Sequence to fold (1040 residues):
Amino acid sequence: MPKGKNQGERALYDELVQRARETSLLGSCSAVLGWDEQTYMPEGAAAHRGEQMALLAGLAHERATAPRMGELLEALGESSLAADGDSIEGANVRQLKRDYDRRTKLPRPLVEELARTTSLAQQEWIVARRESDYKRFQPWLERVVDLKRKESECVGAGQDARGRDAAALVYDPLLDEYEQGAETTRLRTLFTALRQELTPLVGEIVEAAKNRPGHAGILERSFPVDRQKTFGEAAASALGFDFQRGRLDVSAHPFCTGIGPGDVRVTTRYDERQFGDAFFGVLHEVGHGLYEQGLPVEQYGTPAGEAASLGVHESQSRLWENAVGRSPAFWRYWFPMARRVFHESLHDVSIDRFLAAVNQVEPTLIRVQADEVTYNLHILIRFELEQALLAGDLAAADLPSAWNDAYRETLGIVPKNDAEGCLQDVHWSAGLFGYFPTYSLGNVYAAQLFQKARRDLPALDESFDRGEYHELLAWLRDKVHIHGQRYAPATLIERAVEGPIDSHVLIAALRHKYGSLYNL
Amino acid sequence: MPKGKNQGERALYDELVQRARETSLLGSCSAVLGWDEQTYMPEGAAAHRGEQMALLAGLAHERATAPRMGELLEALGESSLAADGDSIEGANVRQLKRDYDRRTKLPRPLVEELARTTSLAQQEWIVARRESDYKRFQPWLERVVDLKRKESECVGAGQDARGRDAAALVYDPLLDEYEQGAETTRLRTLFTALRQELTPLVGEIVEAAKNRPGHAGILERSFPVDRQKTFGEAAASALGFDFQRGRLDVSAHPFCTGIGPGDVRVTTRYDERQFGDAFFGVLHEVGHGLYEQGLPVEQYGTPAGEAASLGVHESQSRLWENAVGRSPAFWRYWFPMARRVFHESLHDVSIDRFLAAVNQVEPTLIRVQADEVTYNLHILIRFELEQALLAGDLAAADLPSAWNDAYRETLGIVPKNDAEGCLQDVHWSAGLFGYFPTYSLGNVYAAQLFQKARRDLPALDESFDRGEYHELLAWLRDKVHIHGQRYAPATLIERAVEGPIDSHVLIAALRHKYGSLYNL
Fold:
């Protein structure tokens, strides 16, 4: 091929990347404002913040959908530079094209209205949740559902309807934003399997637990917040979270946000009477944070420098929270320290009782506090309810009773109020519909990744005994983090585990672990 | 005049306002990022933050200098709507024209480079100050001075040079950004008067103090930081600062930023061994914050909804910090509470000794901790040094020695290191040249405003006795806050005090107060 053509392609590619980086930079300004909104913003600023978010979203949309982007993508789509879809250049062109196609289907007023409404709705949600006042939140939920339905209509226009019902048709375009390649119908199959396998397992555990004392009360003794903070930060540092390039703050709903290179922020919430809530929350968000801190800095602002998908993101958080953080090897190192720090509450507790407490399985009401076994049942409830809301099969006014019915049926318990019911999660107020099922995908991926890491790194447990995690982190960096969006999410995981994605690994791991813990 | 013409003018005006608001909104996004940079941003994020700030500054510049802005301003400049320069419409057109003229003289690359460089320089300043390492900061100062000189050249191009020396020619365009209508030559006259009057007063006080014990040591006992925080917040609330629409945080250099309606944030810094540093710092920044919270919300995003000038801003902070916060009436209410909160350190202190301590006059090294009498001497040192830096009469390499010489000559003391010398203030790292003299203008305005308020409100001291400040706040809202930039700064003050601006009111007030405190 003549050299001139290659140089021309390179120049077009460089321009594409430059434009993508500028759009990302603008998005990263929104990320700072979003973080601030959740952590420190005064309540009175809500309306103004909505306007700020709308403006930035509109500007980003304008840039991302500029006609020049379309020209560049078209020219590069046929180029030799992007011919290899697994090369960095190929992946960037492919993913930017996907983003461009999606964004150009959305009118700017809708983008701005979504940013404005979800910014305000999140503030209303905070108050509604605090006061357990669903009526206050309901009109905002209606507005958000309506806008998300419009978004789905725009993005999904002209999609092939074969083999999908009405709910899947409205849900798929939203789901695809978070988990490229995922499909509603296949997720339903996954959740059916999870329900069939996990419901009897929960039943067996609950039955077995009747004949022996519970231990969770240990975690509900007094754990002064300032010491929880110090202890959690120590663990976060040990895992490899870099506080020179990140922060840990408090918010109503824990989250992680990657603002840019050198700026990854996680949050948690503290309750003196709930050790596990904040501690495992920190491990979870730090898992996300380690992924963000491990993305290739030189690719920042392009898809190759961004997380592969929400499912992959969640695989990282769940792996650190559960596979590492609830393991005996982890606590062999940390429990003696915990006993010194929280002497009043742990001096009479053995490591075995403590391990039983942090691994207690019990149907409970709050998703983020749920154990590993019941967790996916919380997700499937949300997965079904949000499809119904979007499809118009469930009115927002009927959400609380539908929620409570689903909990009764699936977990055998009913929320006393909406704060611990349908108001517990921030997601819907933030417009995150189609987001919840990625949590279960993350669990599936995490189980497979951890299984493979243990095979590749036979001394893993011994390194945990010493409070060292760099071997595991290096493995995850190499297999997952460093690749950004170079491969499709499922491909990335399949390459990492050297096999197909299979939810039975998760189910088998849970059966094995809890079968032994509860002597089933 | 035919109705059609009026309607046409109104439509143009509405479009102008809409555009101005959008630019302000973008500026308010920068304000959030700027606040974050000073308070919570991790160190590793500095480079990325510089890029974010540059992008937002560039976008704001692009909008503010759009050709359509020029067309609208030209059309409205001749309109009947803007004919009355004291009407809100007239003031908005006048001030937006001023801003447009100024901005269109600045090339966008310079605007972006200034935003990027000052963002990075502030991070370097934090480290350099912490480690008292001027050499580390020097190249950044050189870069900032160079950029500000270019800014001055652009803005000042074609100005009338008569009656001004080289330093005034480079300084005036920068000064005018912060204090509309101020001139270097007139400021020099002001500072000459302040030097002539205050230097002997300081001498007399230092002489008188030799024969009696100092009391400042009282404020250097132990004042636990968490209690300082609570006490400061209580005072801030009592003064009228609305925490529903604002925050108080910690930063290396205290500041106030008005992000938008409902979002005004102040900062301070705590030292267990310096009660006065944080407490009067809080009163000072809250003074700024009350002004921001008092601006007319319905005019937000236009000049009529923005503070009149830095000098007027500083008049508010200095009035609350000094005229109110160091008065006997103020402490008659707060001292008993302080004695309860800080019992260990204040149980043996009488209110008279405490008042002597908070009003102790003594040449010291740190501007923000300086007493009212020496304060303006700190300012005149900076005013002279920054003129010399900009004019090229002083090389950045020679700043530390020039600084130390000036302190020896003016205040008779010399910094032990650069952290308490030329590295103490954030301003130059942030590109704020021409900013310092507005502090002294603020002192002049504050003295006159407070004198007038006392005349208008004879029961003021009695309200302070009860810990009530709403009478004074209402007076300031009515005379100053509510007007935004409707009048030029000097005009605003002259209208409020019903007389000409006169620095002798400040000098007389200081002579009166400290003559009596020190029995001169």
Summary: Residues 113 and 432 of chain B are 15 Å apart (CA to CA).
